[in-house]
Request: fold
Amino acid sequence: DGASQPEELAARAAELGYEALALTDHDGIYGSLEFSHAAKAFGVRPITGAEVTLTDGSHVTLLVESAAGYANLCRLLTAAHADTRARPAEPTEPALDSALLAELNEGLVCLSGCARHGLGLRDPNGAAALARAFGRKRFFVELQRPYERGDARRLAALRDLAEALGVETVATGDVHAHHPRRIPLQDALVAIRCRTSLDGCEAERRGNRESVLVSPAELEERFPLDRDAVRRTGELAERLEFDLTEDLGYRYPDF
Reply:
């Protein structure tokens, strides 16, 4: 779904002045270790996480706060992929039971999901259940501004959801490319994944070309009514101190 290497994201983040950045692959931590090493080399603090698909097709964003959280994230991702391995003749997408997520939540922070498939939008009751399981300090309603039709209405609904649940909001960038010149490749990769043409995957790809890493100041300007959410995002980033390269009690070999 993205077209940039972990090192490219890390280097661009440093160039734009980010202090921290989270990499959240779909249903996996495929690039997390590579990203962590690269980000630290460029002076950016890496945050480990994943965008996880639930059994109803909705998404949540999970961020690691501690070593226990990393262990739970690995267990959850394994469970999400287990059914796909059990039935190789009938390939299916990974899917996680939200009840298991509610059970294995220690050391994790949960965001309510992206602008297109977020749990907070597709199933507010499901979001409420996870908010109860995680608690106010570890569950946040996620705001994104992809400049797609319905942005204002969607953001208003998410603010109302946060108020109803008694939780806070955070603002995220939904980045899929480190630089605008990479967007044509991203579109082509989405078309290949969908086994169709560029026109045929318009709904899946991000045709308005806004899913690019921009400066912190430019991102803040996207949320004129949610400056508190932008500030809170920085506060949450400071809190997520888990270091994949240091905190597991062993060192990965550096080739």
In short: Strands lie at 20-26, 45-53, 59-64, 108-111, 139-143, 168-171. Residues 19 and 241 are 12 Å apart (CA to CA). The mean pLDDT is 93. The first helix runs from residue 6 to 16.
